Structure formats: structure tokens, C-alpha cells
């Protein structure tokens, strides 16, 4: 799962990251001064070709534009198994991807939209955005579509439990090299459930003939006109803080628990 323009490899040293916003200062005349978003690593400057970046629409702040990748992933999930009018939809996992997907789905004419999250503080944040956020044990059942983004065995198990007969679970989690156990020996077959994989590397088949990846990203950027996305930015640091910050975010700390999207600002302390 190497990111675009990645240098090196894990664990370290590696030049990694894929949500970047900047201003074009050299290049074709039409691009000079343009604010752009790109899937680029954590650098202060980038040398890219025009196809590597996308203009940011007016009215969207630099920080909010960093969420274009999350919004694009959410859009891709919704294109993978599109909800229909009056559907009951649940999203398991209220992290950056789950929350972004829920904000997009909240504009659809659904009978029910619930986001299922174990962290009570995160549930409170999601509720403040006008979403219905519930603990796993309180989730409604008989769902037409369940979107799983928690990356946990427990989350996937709950997704299968609350999906209605003939329902679909869209698996949008990334498990890395772990091997989650999936309970397919219970009533999975009798209830004719489906598990569908979603991965943002390709436009889903239902749209692939009519939408390029650039057009998908453009649609995601446009969706960021929804001011509620600002709540997913949970912190900002200067680039000098990156070594300390990465240690904190990779540990079981209060900061790690509270973080959805943390911005590195290369103008701070420069």
C-alpha cells in the first residue's frame, strides 16, 4: 500500500503521506498562484506534473481541502454499493473515513442513517454534526447496507449482525497483514448476506466507464463545501513537531484517541 510519490519504506526512514495542499509557484502560466490538492508526502515543496494535483474550489479553506482524500474515499464507498431511496444504512467506525462517508450519505434520502462508534467522545462530536451516532449495542438492525470502516474483527462481526436478510456489507477497512476472523458459519449463508470490497485505488465498476479518478476527486472536493467537514480537523502542528507528534499518534495516548485529521502546517515556525 505504498502512497503516491513515496520515498523509502516502512518502518523508517520513509517519506510518506498523501494529503497535501499548496500553491503553485512555478509552472504553466495558467497554474501560477493556484491552490491545489495532491496525494503527496509530507514535504515543504513538491515537483510534480499537472496531473498530480487538482485545483481547490473557491470557498474551501486549505485545511478543509486536506479532507479531499477522505471525501473521495467516502464517495467511492457510496458508489461501490449505492444506497437507494428509503434505505436503512449503517456505518461502523467513526474515524476520518467513516465520518466523511456519513457526512456525504447524510445528503441522501435515506430512511435511516446511523454511524456506530465505540468512543463516546467521538459519538458526541458526530452527534453535534447532526448525525445519529450510537454505541454498537444500540445499533438498529435490518439494514440494507452496512459500511464497515473500523478495521476491527468486532466491527465486521457487528456489521454482519445488523445487516438485514439479503443485505450488503461494504468492507472499506484496511487490515494490513492481520488476519481477521469472520463468522461465516452462523447464518451468513441462510440470510444470503454479501460482503463487497471497496478500495479507492479504482473507480467502482458501476461508474468506471463514465468517471475518471480526476472527476471523482473533483466531485469530492466540491462536497467539501459542507462546513461540517471542519470538525474532522482535530489539531494543527508545525512541521518541527512531526517526530514528537508521530510518536504520540502511534501510541495509545489521549491525543491519538481524539485525533481524526491532524494538520501539519509548513508555514508554522518556518
From TrEMBL:
<keyword id="KW-0862">Zinc</keyword>
<keyword id="KW-0479">Metal-binding</keyword>
<comment type="similarity">
    <text>Belongs to the zinc-containing alcohol dehydrogenase family.</text>
</comment>
<protein>
    <recommendedName>
        <fullName>Dehydrogenase</fullName>
    </recommendedName>
</protein>
<dbReference type="GO" id="GO:0016491">
    <property type="term" value="F:oxidoreductase activity"/>
</dbReference>
<dbReference type="GO" id="GO:0046872">
    <property type="term" value="F:metal ion binding"/>
</dbReference>
<dbReference type="InterPro" id="IPR036291">
    <property type="entry name" value="NAD(P)-bd_dom_sf"/>
</dbReference>
<keyword id="KW-0560">Oxidoreductase</keyword>
Amino acid at each position: 500500500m505504498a502512497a503516491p510519490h513515496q520515498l523509502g519504506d516502512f518502518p523508517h526512514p520513509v517519506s510518506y503521506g498523501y494529503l497535501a495542499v499548496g500553491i503553485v509557484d512555478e509552472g504553466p502560466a495558467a497554474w501560477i498562484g493556484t491552490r491545489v490538492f495532491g496525494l503527496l508526502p509530507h514535504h515543504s515543496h513538491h515537483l510534480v506534473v499537472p496531473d498530480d494535483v487538482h485545483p481547490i474550489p473557491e470557498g474551501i479553506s486549505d485545511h478543509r481541502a486536506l479532507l479531499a482524500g477522505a471525501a473521495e474515499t467516502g464517495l467511492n464507498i457510496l458508489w461501490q454499493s449505492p444506497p437507494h431511496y428509503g434505505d436503512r444504512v449503517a456505518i461502523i467506525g467513526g474515524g476520518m473515513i467513516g465520518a466523511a462517508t456519513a457526512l456525504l450519505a447524510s445528503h441522501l434520502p435515506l430512511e435511516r442513517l446511523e454511524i456506530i462508534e465505540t468512543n463516546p467522545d467521538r459519538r458526541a462530536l458526530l452527534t453535534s454534526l447532526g448525525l445519529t451516532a450510537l454505541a454498537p449495542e444500540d445499533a438498529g438492525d435490518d439494514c440494507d447496507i452496512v459500511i464497515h470502516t473500523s478495521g476491527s474483527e468486532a466491527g465486521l462481526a457487528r456489521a454482519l449482525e445488523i445487516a438485514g436478510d439479503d443485505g450488503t456489507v461494504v468492507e472499506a477497512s484496511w487490515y494490513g497483514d492481520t488476519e481477521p476472523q469472520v463468522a461465516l458459519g452462523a447464518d451468513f449463508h441462510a440470510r444470503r448476506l454479501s460482503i463487497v470490497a471497496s478500495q479507492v485505488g479504482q473507480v467502482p465498476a458501476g461508474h468506471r466507464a463514465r468517471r475518471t479518478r480526476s472527476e471523482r476527486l473533483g466531485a469530492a472536493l466540491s462536497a467539501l463545501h459542507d462546513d461540517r467537514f471542519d470538525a474532522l480537523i482535530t489539531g494543527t502542528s508545525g512541521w518541527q513537531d512531526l517526530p514528537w507528534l508521530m510518536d504520540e499518534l502511534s501510541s495509545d495516548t489521549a491525543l491519538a484517541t481524539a485525533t481524526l485529521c491532524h494538520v501539519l502546517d509548513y508555514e508554522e515556525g518556518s
